[in-house]
Amino acid sequence: MNDWTTSHARVLAQRHAEGWMFLIEAARDLRTTGAVAPSGRPLARALTEPVRVQAPGPLAVLEAGAGTGAVTRTLIPHLPRGSRLDIVEANRRFATRLRGLVAGHPNLAGRHAQVNVHQTYVEDLDTDQRYDVIVSGLPLTNFTPAQVERVMARYLELLHPGGTLTYFAYLGTRRARRLTASRAEALRHAAVDEVMADYQRRYAVGRWTVWANLPPAHVWHLRRPRPPAAPHSPQQAADGTRR
Q1: What kind of architecture, by CATH, is found in domain 3-226?
Q2: pLDDT tens by residue, the chain, 243 residues
Q3: Interhelix angle for 92-104 vs 3-28, to 10°?
Q4: Whether this model's pTM surpasses 0.70
Q5: Which end of the chain offers a freer environment for a tag, N or C, measured as fewer CB atoms within 10 Å?
Q6: What are the φ and ψ backbone dihedral angles of 111, each rounded to 5 degrees?
């Protein structure tokens, strides 16, 4: 058995274990686990695209709702040297798994202090740090509209002006809930969609469809606006001309 075969078998076993872990945790708490399976590699690449675009300079990156680390494993190798990564995960079992991933990741040898796992809700994250990129894996469609407003407001607060938030939304969830959920649940889901649509109208800079995921998903990139430049007074303009 060669090294590739051994490595491939290990990856398959890991994905199988993570799939079962997601199902178990979703049954326990839909507030922290809203997927039926970890994000696939194409979805992870779409979510982490802003990190690759902004390299090679050091970045401050936040990943919220990291789950078992499917997106984290795609993210870490693309972090430029000197970058900081904060990983937020409210689920205790997932947080423990993420700490093990960070401790054993070969790209982080000697750099563990720059990557931290926080077991908390992102709304409760106690930090003065501002981020260039935020990658969200939170199951927002499982939240109430008020919770979604709090999360999105916190994301914008945590972003540097000009920083990018990426998140995904599964395709067809509104139609599925309309067919299978109670009226109250369908109304809640529609209200969450409207909250997100408002943020998309104001801040979206791109949307991509990832078909190679279970289930397929839209990936949205939102950007916090930069403050407008202060206008120059006529006197300042004259002084600049004289110089």
Answers
A1: 3-Layer(aba) Sandwich (3.40)
A2: 444 334 434 443 444 445 445 444 444 545 444 455 567 899 999 999 999 998 788 999 999 999 989 999 999 999 998 999 999 999 999 999 999 999 999 988 877 669 999 999 999 999 999 999 999 999 898 899 999 999 999 999 999 999 999 999 988 766 666 667 788 888 998 899 999 999 999 999 999 999 998 889 999 999 999 988 777 655 554 554 444
A3: 160
A4: yes
A5: C
A6: -125, 20
